[in-house]
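The instructor's notes for this session suggest beginning with a concrete chain rather than abstract definitions. Hand out the sequence below and ask the class to guess, before any prediction is shown, which regions might be ordered.
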Amino acid sequence: MGAYIKPEHLAFLEEVKAVFEVNCRRETHQNEEGTLIALRFGADRDCINVFELGEEIAFFTQQIEPNPNPRLEVMEFSRDMEVQLQKNDHKKGWIQENYDFLIRKIGTHGMKLHEELSKLDKDKSKIISLCANIANYAMMIADNEGEHL
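After discussion, reveal the predicted structure:
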């Protein structure tokens, strides 16, 4: 990392921040000239790594198994699930939980969700929280019981 940061790098950084904030699934962005590329980076995907590009060597197609990004709705909902999980980080986790307990929790939250959805003045935030909790309990059962598809 011996290059000097130039005004065009900072301008590109601002462009990249806007692109990544609009589309949370984006992992890379290249400038129109093809001279700079940015990579989303970090455990929380909140860092940006910028590179200057040289001459392209080759473009190899279909070299690995396809692995498309989840849909935007799935990404957003998974963040809601993570928020709900973090609220309970003080608890021991779900590895030792019996599936009967987790299914009862799904039912309890399902009834609360039905009640909230039946109201004329629905609390959308509460609906999202309840849905995320239900999904988290289902995820816990899946995590405890089996392999991923």
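Then share the key points. The two ends are 41 Å apart (CA to CA). Residues 7-52 form one domain.
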